[in-house]
Amino acid sequence: MAQSQPWQEIPTTLSVEEFGQFVWPHLSKGRRGPGRKLSAHAMFNYILKALYLGCQR
Fold this sequence. Notes:
Blueprint: H1 16-23, H2 40-53
């Protein structure tokens, strides 16, 4: 009998710890312009969600 493969889901959210470990070291902080209203962690999670859902009309 063939063994079933475990499904690997596409991540749509990262915890703050995962974001700090894997993503934050690769980002640079802007020097000019107004401050952000959302954290970089929240923006990254929104981008992941948009990529997962795709463009919808």
